[in-house]
Each structure stands twice: as structure tokens, then as C-alpha cells.
């Protein structure tokens, strides 16, 4: 036996670890050690000999990997409580504020609000794409979470889309793509920030533009995020313009591959699903926003085809715990019952490893595994709604909430402690975002915000 004690910056003991690692999915009353931002010990048994700078006894607490939420638009937290009742994505809807109307001070406030909400509820990785990505990425990075930011890139004139006109302009494409690549250059080498490309959707990106994106993705090994089969309008526009489905266009332009994350996937054909499965592309399932608009992706079919599925909150309430429940329940409604392919551990896997895989980070995070990043979430499960602990992952998915999160650790650092962010002032962020939203809605002439 090695006589030298193991040295930890942090040791967590007596907790229930829900690992998302298939080798040992559940470790009761176990020990997790962290050294230099990585998990260096995880076992049911105590280390034979150790020294720890900090030791936490967390009896009755659940510890999970940080949730990976790969598709959000934090600045659009400004449309909370309104947009989901209008029936369509904000960018396509007249009468509500657009990203292009947001100034940089407002962008900063709203991006921090959206990212803070996600972090407090246990997302340690946030994929966020929108306009003002430079300001937003800087503002969000101050929270201490991992980020996969990207500019919303497109060559359509978005000012006209909300009024039913799709006009593609190469100058717009060049401008958005160069902003996207400047963001990549700016953050290259940062251990917590990995820039993606976000080709908005096939109806808002022409084929020649998508080819350019595909070339850059291949050249720099960049993950590409897109909205696929999000709306009937998209399906119709793409059919009129190209004679193909959006999935076919993505394949023809070289984007349908393992670096592509496809958000929504509501309107996809069986042939599209076959193409996606063969390509290794990932589905970003967004069950709550989709269901809120009265629609659902054919998730049981997508899962049965063997496609990697991850979960994301998009423009709505950034609670990944609640979202797992939506994913499970909506799939069961579609299936018409309970079966072995849709169980709590499956949606938990989607919310953790599924997202990590989609972002190309499955080797370094997404599960509680020795050697991976020390990114994890602590839930206080000593509460009536989470007791008894017969099947902890079942409790978490069926009765848990993001509000049950007590601590969030990223790369070994507590970025949320006792439910509060450690690096930023929560009250100040809330006040600034409220002010920014009032200004933006006020500019649209929505008086109830001003009363
Ligand atoms: Zn989206």
C-alpha cells in the first residue's frame, strides 16, 4: 500500500453520488476527492490515507455531474412571461423586442440574468447563441461557469423576417460569420470557454452560406449549433427555396456530421431521422418550450434510431431538473405508456453526458468519473419531497427542482454556495435586467411594463 497520503483540495463524504457513469451509476455514502480542478477520487470507501484542505460531510445530499445545457439565448430572458404565449420564436414575431434592438449595457444585464438562472439550477455548461455574443460571453464568464458561446450567424435580413420576407444578403452573411470567428479567436485557449458556430436555421441561411460555415467548422473543429425543423414556416420556406428538407440541405452543404447540434427537430421526416442517425449529428431536445407552443419532437423515434439526444432550455425557464421531467413525461405521452426505454436514468443521461457528447466534451466532463473535471451539483435531499432515497435518480427526475440545488462546483471552485452565486451580486444582476427589460418593452410601446 502507498504510504503517502492522497492530497485533496476538497473531499466530499457521506453523500449519494448519481454519477452518469454506467460503470457505477450510484454510489451511496461515498467519497469524492478533488485536486487541481479534477475528480481524483470517487468510491464507496474512504481513501486509505489522505489530507484535504476542505472536507464536507453531506449526508442525505445528492451529488450529480453539472448539467450541460447546450442551447440557450440568455438575452431573450427579456421575453419571459410573454413570448411563450405568442406561439412562435421571438425573432419571427412582430411586436416584441428583438436582439438587434438591445444595446450592449442591456445585453450584459440580460445575459447575466439568463446565465445566473441556469447556474443556480445546476447547469455548469451553457451553450448560448445570439446577437451581442461578445458582450454576453464576457458578462456570463464572470459567473465562473463553463460556456460555449456563439454569435447567431445567418445571411437573411432578420429585420424583414418578422414581417414575412426572407431576403438573403451575402454582406449580412459575411458580417455575422466574421463576428462568429472573431469570438472564436478572442476566447481561444480559455479553459472554461469553448466557442461554437451557430448557423441559425436553414431558412435563414442560404446554401452557399451554409457551405462556408461547414468549411470553417471542419477547418477549426468547431461544433455547429442550429435550429432544425423548428417550425412549419421553416419547412415551407426551405422547400420553396431548395426543393429539399432542411436535413437534406444540411447534408448537401456538408454540415450534417458529428459536429452538428440540431435544436428542436419537431418537423423531421423518417428519412431525415435516418440521415441524422447515420451522420452522428446530435439532437438538442427542447421539450418544455416545444410543448408550451403545443408541439413535440418525435423523440421516441429519434431515440430508437440511436441518435445522441441532449436537453436544453432555450428561451425558457433554465431549470434542467424540471426539464428532465418534461422530457420523460412527454415521451411517455407519445409512447402511450411506460416502458424500459424511457426511465429517469435515460433523461438524466441526456441532461449530462448527452450534452457533453454533443459539445465534443464527453472525455472531460458530463459524469462523475475520476480524471474528469470537478464540475458537480449538490442537492439537499433531506427534504420531504425528495425522501425516501430508494431510487435517487427517480426522486430527482420526478420531484426535484433546480431550486433544490445548494452548491455548484466548476473546475473545483464553488461558484454557487448555499444557493447564492459566489462571484457576482445576484440582486444587482436582477435589478439591471429588470431595468433593461422595461426599457426594451417600453420601446415597443408595451405600456403594462411601465405602469
Ligand atoms: Zn433556440
From TrEMBL:
Where on the tree of life does the source sit, at the highest rank? Answer: Bacteria
Q: Which family does it belong to?
A: Belongs to the metallo-dependent hydrolases superfamily. ATZ/TRZ family.
The name this protein goes by in its record: Amidohydrolase family protein
Keywords from the UniProt entry: Hydrolase
Q: Which GO terms describe its molecular function?
A: hydrolase activity, acting on carbon-nitrogen (but not peptide) bonds
- UniProt lineage: Bacteria, Pseudomonadati, Pseudomonadota, Betaproteobacteria, Burkholderiales
- Xref: Pfam families: Amidohydro_1 (PF01979)
Keyword Hydrolase set for record: yes
The residues covered by the Amidohydrolase-related domain are 62-415
The species is Zwartia hollandica
Q: Which SUPFAM superfamilies match?
A: Composite domain of metallo-dependent hydrolases (SSF51338), Metallo-dependent hydrolases (SSF51556)
InterPro entries membership: Amidohydro-rel (IPR006680), Metal-dep_hydrolase_composite (IPR011059), Metal_Hydrolase (IPR032466), MTA/SAH_deaminase (IPR050287)
Amino acid at each position: 500500500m502507498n504510504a503517502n497520503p492522497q492530497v485533496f483540495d476538497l473531499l466530499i463524504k457521506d453523500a449519494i453520488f448519481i454519477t452518469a457513469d454506467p460503470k457505477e451509476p450510484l454510489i451511496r455514502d461515498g467519497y469524492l476527492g478533488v485536486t487541481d480542478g479534477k475528480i481524483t477520487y470517487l468510491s464507496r470507501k474512504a481513501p486509505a490515507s489522505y489530507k484535504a484542505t476542505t472536507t464536507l460531510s453531506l449526508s442525505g445530499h445528492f451529488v450529480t455531474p453539472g448539467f450541460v445545457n447546450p442551447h440557450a439565448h440568455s438575452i431573450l430572458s427579456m421575453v419571459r412571461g410573454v413570448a411563450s404565449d405568442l406561439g412562435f420564436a421571438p425573432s419571427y414575431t412582430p411586436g416584441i423586442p428583438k436582439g438587434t434592438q438591445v444595446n450592449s449595457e442591456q445585453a450584459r444585464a440580460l445575459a447575466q440574468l439568463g446565465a445566473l438562472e441556469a447556474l443556480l439550477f445546476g447547469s455548469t455548461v451553457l451553450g448560448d447563441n445570439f446577437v451581442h455574443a461578445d458582450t454576453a460571453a464576457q458578462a456570463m464568464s464572470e459567473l465562473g461557469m463553463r460556456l460555449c458561446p456563439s454569435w447567431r450567424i445567418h445571411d437573411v435580413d432578420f429585420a424583414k423576417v418578422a414581417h414575412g420576407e426572407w431576403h438573403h444578403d451575402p454582406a449580412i452573411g459575411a458580417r455575422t460569420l466574421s463576428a462568429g470567428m472573431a469570438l472564436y479567436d478572442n476566447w481561444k485557449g480559455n479553459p472554461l470557454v469553448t466557442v461554437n458556430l451557430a448557423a441559425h436555421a436553414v431558412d435563414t441561411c442560404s446554401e452557399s452560406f451554409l457551405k462556408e460555415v461547414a468549411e470553417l467548422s471542419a477547418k477549426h473543429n468547431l461544433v455547429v449549433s442550429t435550429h432544425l425543423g423548428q417550425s412549419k414556416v421553416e419547412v415551407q420556406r426551405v422547400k420553396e427555396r431548395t426543393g429539399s428538407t432542411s436535413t437534406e440541405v444540411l447534408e448537401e452543404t456538408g454540415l450534417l456530421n458529428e459536429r452538428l447540434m440540431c435544436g428542436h427537430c419537431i418537423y423531421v421526416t423518417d428519412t431525415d431521422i435516418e440521415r441524422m442517425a447515420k451522420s452522428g449529428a446530435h439532437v438538442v431536445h427542447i421539450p418544455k418550450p416545444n410543448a408550451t407552443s403545443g408541439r413535440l419532437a418525435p423523440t421516441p423515434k429519434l431515440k430508437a434510431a440511436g441518435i445522441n439526444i441532449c436537453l436544453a432550455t432555450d428561451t425558457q425557464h433554465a431549470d434542467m431538473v424540471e426539464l428532465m421531467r418534461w422530457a420523460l413525461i412527454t415521451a411517455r405521452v407519445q409512447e402511450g405508456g411506460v416502458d424500459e426505454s424511457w426511465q429517469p436514468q435515460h433523461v438524466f443521461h441526456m441532461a449530462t453526458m448527452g450534452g457533453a457528447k454533443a459539445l465534443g466534451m464527453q472525455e472531460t466532463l458530463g459524469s462523475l468519473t475520476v480524471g474528469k473535471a470537478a464540475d458537480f451539483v449538490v442537492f439537499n435531499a433531506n427534504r420531504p419531497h425528495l425522501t425516501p432515497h430508494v431510487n435517487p435518480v427517480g426522486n430527482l427526475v420526478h420531484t426535484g427542482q433546480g431550486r433544490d440545488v445548494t452548491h455548484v462546483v466548476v473546475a473545483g471552485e464553488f461558484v454557487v454556495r448555499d444557493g447564492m452565486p459566489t462571484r457576482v451580486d445576484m440582486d444587482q444582476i436582477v435589478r439591471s435586467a429588470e431595468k433593461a427589460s422595461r426599457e426594451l418593452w417600453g420601446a415597443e410601446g408595451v405600456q403594462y411594463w411601465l405602469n
